[in-house]
Write a structure and sequence with these properties.
eight-stranded parallel beta sheet; TIM Barrel; three-stranded antiparallel beta sheet; alpha/beta; metal-binding; GlcNAc_6-P_deAcase
Length: about 375
């Protein structure tokens, strides 16, 4: 049996890791003193919120199995080896169609199946208010409905693994408890719920906050408000869009320090416009959008964000400038992997080598340079 070798520096310890692998699986890991000439090596980035990237649109009318395959390949090139397709608020029929296509892509392609652990329904049970609703279509916002979720699971082989809910709805706690009992994760997000409703959601089993600090009113009372309530709720692990546009660096740092690294994770929230040149586009998220020279994605003619354009590798570099590379990778690998499958995200014998990345990064770099 032929044995191949891959080497790099562990971002957490600085040691050199020599990986031996055969038949696509890591068979042995040797540690040696660090070598500054080697690239960094780690498990691939894990992105819990991907609407699309590089022209591939999970919420578009032309979604197909090839779209899902192409998206996986495009994300792999920027270091993401595990991602959660995210479907935004839409009609029940549209969501079921999209879920069926993603499920079929997983059945047809083992690499797609390995990259996609489940699907995230970001809505439709969110706030109908301007601000918290974000770029979601108000026409399709609706109350929680277990029967609708069951139909989604029926057409997708039970692929829904995460739902974002605003707990302001009547009996939302009952819905959350029922959903969690089936093994689906629930996140609080796109909400105008008060503190008591957020605490009740956590008591019912909600464990996450969707892109905390965004999907919110432009102005809030100093206190109380739903951001403080989620920051204070230790049962909620919070996602953050670390692109420099969705959160100012001081806000991001303060929020992560409040939550702690073990309850913080980075997401891209990328849409199909991500990875494309500046210009105007028509998007399933936000309609007519403008991608500015500095990477800000706006609903055309407004100051409102329409999702994100930067891949998670950019977010890691941005977060590393505020914290450190190991801390940023903890939020992009360790915490999301724990949410996905309960592992710590560190390389182990038996891991598939396709889930390993090597990359270059040094302070001041604006992204991780992923090695092919």
């Amino acid at each position: 049996m032929a044995v191949d070798r891959l080497s790099g520096r562990d971002p957490w310890s600085g040691e050199t890791l020599h990986l031996e692998y055969a038949d696509g699986l890591i068979s042995r890991i040797e540690r040696a003193p660090g070598d500054a000439d080697l690239p960094w090596i780690s498990r691939g980035l894990a992105d819990l919120q991907v609407n699309g990237y590089a022209g591939y649109d999970l919420n578009g009318d032309d979604l197909s199995v090839d779209t899902v395959r192409g998206l996986r390949e495009a994300l792999r090139r920027v270091g993401v080896t595990v991602f959660v397709p995210t479907l935004i608020t839409a009609s029940p029929e549209r969501n079921r169609r999209a879920l069926g296509i993603v499920a079929e892509a997983r059945r047809q392609d083992a690499e797609v199946a390995a990259a996609i652990p489940f699907v995230h329904l970001e809505g439709p049970h969110i706030s109908d208010q301007d601000g918290p609703r974000g770029a979601h279509d108000a026409a399709f916002v609706r109350p929680p409905d277990l029967a609708e979720l069951e139909l989604c699971q029926d057409v997708s082989d039970g692929l829904v693994g995460l739902i974002t809910v605003s707990p302001h709805w009547p009996d939302s706690t009952g819905f959350i408890a029922e959903v969690v009992a089936t093994g689906i994760r629930v996140a609080v997000g796109h909400t105008h719920a008060d503190g008591a409703q957020i605490r009740a959601a956590a008591e019912a089993g909600a464990t996450l906050s969707t892109h905390l600090g965004n999907g919110a009113h432009a102005q809030l009372p100093r206190h109380p408000n739903y951001l403080w309530a989620q920051l204070a709720e230790d049962r909620l692990t919070a996602g953050f869009i670390a692109d420099g546009h969705h959160l100012p660096v001081d806000t991001f740092v303060a929020m992560v320090r409040a939550k702690g690294l073990d309850r913080s994770f980075l997401v891209s929230d990328s849409v199909a416009t991500g990875g494309r040149p500046p210009g105007t586009y028509s998007s399933s998220v936000g309609g007519d959008v403008e991608l500015t020279d500095d990477g800000r994605l706006l609903v055309s003619g407004t100051p409102y964000l329409a999702g994100a354009a930067a891949p998670l590798a950019d977010g890691v570099a941005w977060a590393a400038a505020a914290f450190s590379l190991p801390e940023a990778l903890t939020m992009a690998i360790t915490t999301p992997r724990r949410i996905i499958d309960g592992t710590d995200g560190r390389l182990q014998p038996g891991d598939p080598v396709t889930d390993v990345i090597t990359f270059r990064w040094q302070p001041g770099d604006r992204t991780l340079t992923i090695n092919a």
